[in-house]
Amino acid sequence: MAQTQGVQTLGGKASPLLVADGVTLQYKTTDHLVTATWRVSFEVFTGERFVLLGPSGCGKSTLLKAIAGFMQPVEGAFRLAGKPITKPGSDRMMVFQEFDQLLPWKTVLGNVMFPLLVNHRMSRNDAREHARQLLAKVNLTRFEDVHPHMLSGGMKQRTAIARALAMEPKVLLMDEPFAALDALTRRKMQEELVALWEEVGFTVIFVTHSIEEALLVGSRILVLSPHPGRVKAELNAHNLGFSSIGTPEFEALHRRIHDLLFTDKIETDLAPEAAHG
Amino acid sequence: MAELAIHRSSPRPQPPARPERIISLDTLGTVGDAARPLGPIERLANITMVRRLVVLALLAVFWEAYARYNGNSLLFPSLSETLAAFWDAATRGPLIDRTLNSLSVLAMGYGIGLLTAAVFTTLAVSTRAGTDLLSTLTAMFNPLPAIALLPLALLWFGLGAKSLVFVIVHSVLWAVALNTHSGFTSVSPTLRMAGQNCGLKGISFVMLLLVPAAFPSILTGLKIGWAFAWRTLIAAELVFGASSRSGGLGWFIFENRNQLETPSVFAGLLTVILIGLVVESVIFRTLENMTVRRWGMQS
Q1: Chain A residues lying within 8 Å of B293, measured CB to CB
Q2: Predicted pLDDT of residue B241
């Protein structure tokens, strides 16, 4: 159950960009030691849209935070391009679910320039130019001088995506970035993300609990079981897109994942603290 | 039971089946400006400054009328007498000098207090021992009125500016440190992670993320600190000031009371109020408008 099942690597002998090697993650709450994931292994290749999918409490967000370097595995390791991940870094830019990830005291442009300047990646003028190009890509050119509190939720998330992409990270980490948006905006953002991926060609690890979102956004889907998170399956969805909504293939995969997630009852009573994991 | 039966027997309402409608928006014509412009009086009444000035004018009229009716300028001088004394003291008397004296002592104490607070809070956010130290010290000293330390300060530093600076530092330090620290600890985990993700660490994390993110609390601390410091200073100057050669505003008030120059006492009090108003509603207000209001962190 807990093993990766006969994965056919699509890219032939290419070496993976990110490796999770038997990762066990634990964190402490005030009176519990919660095991968020148990010996999770997977490989992400350059250019993939890799989705971590699972119900609440399967440790998918914790997994992403560990890839970002905010916590260390108690067992196993993450390796990015061969090097173990030990601390947060701007080669793994993260887009969070919460809107307050933007710096409220900086304009939209200032937010996108911020990591470029902090890391001395380029001069102020170059950073401004670079940030403007990215804001144009996410359709925010008209709002570059606006402070985040004047933006809608979707615009805030687009700013965060632009900020992350500006750093040209090795891998873009997205933690349920569209979960707090209304349904119409969410669908639009999903389409825009895939369009942006087609244009720019980044690698992204995307966390979601929505099967539909996983199918639309992902090219490969890691299905996790809850309490603690263990790998249940790794599925291909690269031939599914927005045009395949309602097609038999789409519905079939949707059904397969649904069955995978709901075959055993979700044990919500075991570790209630892990709900945000 | 009977009611239920009645409800059940009443016929269920049947909405009529209606044809669908689809309207092309450009057939509706241009959308007119539906907003109504405000009248001049409404617009005037919306300016806070104007409303405040009206209140001030009413108070002034009331003051003048009462003082004239009373007719005892030794106990309660009228507004015009106070203003005359104010003008006299400002142009020919020592009022300006005294005020500048007070302000320079205040600035020194405030500055030293802020620096010390910065050191304490940086310690407190970077180490757990620092947190414990700061919370213990603020719990001890925050409730202690700074003016209560004046006798001790006089013993240690003698009569003069040093003692004043000491009590002012004490009055500023804990208020600012407490607010700054609570501002730091309430910065959201997401914003912290976003900052670290962008590559901030150590002192750059404090200066570029924590300080601006906690700025609403820091500003509150600065305001409280200023109010404490100003009160403490005037109170301390009332106690002494003669020996520090020129004396401050508090001494000006005390001196004039001794000479029964009541209009000048009022003029001194008026100066204290005016400076308080200017700092509060010009300096701090501008700072707020430039920062937390513009950033949408405070409405």
Answers
A1: none
A2: 56
Which among B198, B199, B297 is the nearest to A104, CB-wise?
B297
- Whether residue B90 lies inside any domain: the answer is yes
Of A90, A98, A150, the CB nearest to B198: A90
Q: pLDDT tens across B7-27, in order?
A: 566 788 888 888 888 888 777
pLDDT recorded at residue A3? 41
Q: Is B121 within the bounds of a domain?
A: yes
**Residue B229 distance to chain A (closest CA, Å):** 29
- CATH code for position B124: 1.10.3720.10
Task: Search chain B and give the residue with CA nearest A95.
Answer: B194
Residue B30 within a domain: no
The predicted complex's ipTM stands at 0.83
Q: Check if the beta carbon of residue B179 is closer than 8 Å to that of residue A88.
A: no
Q: Which residue of A has its CA nearest to B299?
A: A149
Q: How confident is the model at residue A2 (pLDDT cuts 50, 70, 90)?
A: very low
**Could you give the domains of chain A?**
18-92+169-276 (3.40.50.300)
Beta strand residue intervals within chain A, DSSP E = 18-28, 33-44, 49-53, 75-80, 83-84, 94-95, 172-175, 204-208, 220-225, 230-236
Using the beta-carbon criterion (under 8 Å), do A98 and B208 form an inter-chain contact? Answer: no
Please return the burial class of A9, using the count of CB atoms within 10 Å of its CB with bins 0-12, 13-18 and 19+: exposed
A236 strand-pairing partners: A220
Kindly report, residue by residue over A22-77, the tens digit of the pLDDT.
888 888 888 888 888 888 888 888 889 999 998 887 888 889 999 988 888 888 88
Query: B262 lies in a domain?
Result: yes
Question: Does residue B33 surpass a pLDDT of 70?
Answer: no
Number of domains chain B is built from: 1
